[in-house]
Amino acid sequence: MRSFVLSIWCVLSTVEAVVGAPGPAFPALNLGRGSPGIEKLQTRLDQAVGDVLSHGKVPGGSWDSSTTSFALQVTSATETIWSSYHSASKQGSDTPHVVTGDSFFRIASISKTFTVYALLLEQLNLDEPVTKWLPELKVPQTEDDVAIDWNSISLRALASHQAGIYRDSSGPCFLWREVLGLQPNWRDELEQHGFPRSLVTIRLDLLRTARHAARVFLPNTQATYSNAGFSLLGAVLESAGGKPYNAIINSSILQPLQMQKTTARKPDDSEGVIPAYHNDWYKPFDADTATAGLYSTPNDLAIYLRSMLYPATLLPQARLNAWMKPATWTSSGSTTAYGLSWEIYRTTSLTPDQRPIDLVTKGGLLNGYPSLIVLIPEFQLALVILIAGAPEVLDLLRRSIIAALVPVADELLREEASKRYTGCYTLPASMDDTTASKSSASSIELAVDNQGPGLRITSWISLGTDFLTTYARLQGAPASKRPDGWQVRLLPSDPVMSTSTTEIWRAVLLPSPLPEHDQKQAPVLWDDYYATDVDDLSYAGRSLGEFRITINEKGQAVKIYSVGLRTLLLSSQCNPAEHVHADTGKEKASWKSEL
């Protein structure tokens, strides 16, 4: 008797809502400037920017486009597919700079992603304590001591804001007495403990401040944003690499990617976008460069982000994938998380099937320089927003652009998938028969709709049996009060496992969306707790949920192979209902006895 492994999926008995499934909904489009539908995407993005320029509102009124410049780019894995630039008429230079893809901006905390990228590329063990590389931080502990126990803080905790340490390693300490009313001897004592008078300017001050700072939380208790943690990671890179931070970034990232306009040194003023009012264009960061000190351009950042889209350029794909994942929840909101330098936002409001879309982002903010980069793994797209001017404009732009980008990208994906896969696939005719007999008839029918991710299996016949229902029941689908209470869908598997001619897909069982009038009901506790697995049913050692789709030279699906059932089906015209036995009870009983 053949072996059979069954995993009962009971969640469907209580969950009746649109929920997410593991992995992307479709294979990502490799969009280029000549791709079908690209003009629609570009037009929608142009409209979004136009709305911000003409109707943009910020708290307190409209924003002043005459004093705020910006640069925007959307890139696929291969090239920038859209850009938009706005040059303020009033700038901080005698001759206003015309913004282009090569204009310099300060990128503030986006610098943190370079620091973590370098840690990964230098292959440092992120789970080792920071004191391995910075032994100066070893501080004797006492029973009631509130000093930070640096021995218990890993590089990973620093990179994900879980170290429980202070926010900034520098500050205007010379104002403490005046602002806080400190007595002179208190101020002197603080300075004796190593707190600098102004910005941290040398590594010694950075480490001295860390040694004598009080903890905020015990490590890994909860997340709290810390610029200081990334300054220390910069020092770790220097200790491990034996050279300055700037040199490490240059050799590990900038040179391999040919990013010639990203630097820690201030560019010539004529190449930069300098706001007309108070700004940090000239501000030195020195030992804090690893947290917020870099300058870059839209074109360079687009190259940078492309290295993180599939296929990975610098890191092994598996390690890059891990870097894009959450490390901990933030302390506010149920859809936001910190990654290793990332701020990750998950939303279900951007697609018609309300599936979760992850936006892997990093924002930055210096005086006059708000900035944001966004990776959208679902679509293999990335966004750059660089601003010289009002910080409020960043929120307007990111909302408008993402709200335009994701729905259109999803629409293009569905249109492409519909052309590529939709249809019926049946057993090929035998050598001596023109049609397969009903006793051996097998077929599968695929469709693309807006009710869920991936390819919906609308009919699945195996040896004349309604195997779609059989598969759903084996997965634990309940006898729903609604006849359409569940659906089986195919989702693309890891692209590394696929080739240009053969794609690997896996089946998942999902609840069907509620009727629109039921979706407004108040949620019940645990109704939104949902975990979907793949590849949890096997027959004779092969996955019942694995399918391999063959693509021809025209980009059309022509074959589908069911790995578990060992059945090869060819694209054809068919009526699946004709392939089902009139008496299916005997066939189902046969299946059950064999299993």
From TrEMBL:
Q: Locate the Beta-lactamase-related domain: which residues? A: 72-392
Task: List all membrane-crossing ranges.
Answer: none
Q: What SUPFAM superfamilies does the annotation carry?
A: beta-lactamase/transpeptidase-like (SSF56601)
Q: Which UniProt keywords apply?
A: Signal
Cleavable signal peptide: 1-20
The record's annotation in InterPro entries points to: ARB_00930-like_C (IPR058664), Beta-lactam-related (IPR001466), Beta-lactam/transpept-like (IPR012338), Beta-lactamase-like_AB/R (IPR051478)
**Superkingdom field:** Eukaryota
Report any Pfam family annotated for this entry: Beta-lactamase
- The residue ranges of the Beta-lactamase-like ARB-00930-like C-terminal domain are 414-570
Task: Tell me the protein family, please.
Answer: Belongs to the beta-lactamase family.
UniProt cross-references to PANTHER family, sorted A to Z: BETA-LACTAMASE-LIKE 1-RELATED, PENICILLIN-BINDING PROTEIN
* Protein name as catalogued: Uncharacterized protein
